[in-house]
Amino acid sequence: MMFPAASLWTLLALSISITGSPVEVRNSRIILPMTSGLHFSNGTKPVQRDDARLIDVTLDNAYVVSSVTIGVGGHLHTASYHLIVNTASAITWIGANRPYSPSSPAFNTWLPITIEYPYSFFAGILCTDTIEITDGDAVDGMIIGAATRTWGVVPFDGMLGIGPRSLSRGLIPTQPETTFATVTESLFMQGSISLPLVGLFFKPSSMDSVDLDNGMLIFGDENPDFDIGNIAYTPRTSIMPASDYWGIDQSIEYGDTEILPLTSGIVDSGMTFILIASDAYEMYKHVTGAHPDPRTGMLSLTPRQYRALLPLEFHIGEETYNLSPDGQIWPRFLNYMIQGSESGIYLVIKSLDRPTGRGIDFCLGYVFLQRFYSVFDAFSANPSVGFATTPWTDAETNF
């Protein structure tokens, strides 16, 4: 297929121009409330969804869905869209549920784009339009996808990509090395935020509601509106393919036993569980005394074993983050969602079904991020990921 030359060069100019000097900053940060919940399709259980995702780690899994509402169109054409927050993608696209067309025909580049996910699909064209994060905080000329065909995303309207810019490489078949500025980069370069940071905060699940406003998406500042511990940053890993994502290096210990040696993996809020290499998983199973549960596909503990459970230690950079026994188990009031027994105790540590040394030897998913505040540096000379404890790190909510 041939594309209008003007459209292609306009797109490339927009993707490059965002790397210029920052303009005057209007705000230090932007905070959006996030709604998180468990969403099912085709009767698939979350243990199956995460296993499927790691077959091809370039694909997205929106099983644990964290979502925000933003405006698209600008000026008199702004419409609201409810988007999944996607840490494993750099591109924002809309039109899955509520129809979208560019607010001006001139904004349509006619460049096709297709993204396949394990349980969803997007096909459309690349456009440029105004993204309004909040009233008064907008990104003009943002490169987004306009859906023509989708599957598995409804009732949401699309995805808000907050992953590293490198994840947009290869989306244009005729320009495989082209990358696009992310929402975080664009907000920074247009002066809406003071720092090129995006932070994620989630409270642990509670019995009050399965779907609730339990999170915040924070652009431009590392500090949320509540007390947290010191944020410690670690460089993004250099090991492929984790380096394309929010990838870090870490080791894991349980008591005096090393579960996982220092290795690379990714941080991804779209993952339900904490996934580790198969050899590490077998060691964790051994030291906890857990047994596989055939109904849920998860490891299970007896009440006596749970009372003896130790914190799981994640050594990231110079810091250690202790995941409490309560943080290591699935919320028991949600056992019906995984086809578990009402009184069952199920661990949220799962296997990648492949040994260490494959480039992605762990994934810190939603259950980890519920206990630790996370910050992602999108645009510095030394990109990094930061973590901090929160008032809910040691909360007793799951047992």
What does this structure look like?
It is built from six helices and 23 strands. The protein has helices at 5-17, 46-53, 183-189, 278-288, 303-307, 366-369, and strands spanning 30-38, 64-72, 79-86, 92-94, 108-117, 120-134, 137-151, 158-161, 197-202, 212-219, 232-235, 247-254, 257-267, 274-276, 291-292, 299-301, 312-316, 319-323, 345-346, 349-351, 362-364, 372-377, 384-389.
Q: Specify the biggest β-sheet.
A: 7 strands, mixed
Structural class: mainly beta
Radius of gyration, in angstroms, nearest whole number: 21 Å
Tally of helical segments: 6
What is the CA-CA span between the terminal residues?
Answer: 57 Å
Name the overall outline.
globular
Q: Report the count of strand segments.
A: 23
Brief account:
With 399 residues, the chain is mostly beta strands. It has helices spanning 5-17, 46-53, 183-189, 278-288, 303-307, 366-369; strands at 30-38, 64-72, 79-86, 92-94, 108-117, 120-134, 137-151, 158-161, 197-202, 212-219, 232-235, 247-254, 257-267, 274-276, 291-292, 299-301, 312-316, 319-323, 345-346, 349-351, 362-364, 372-377, 384-389.
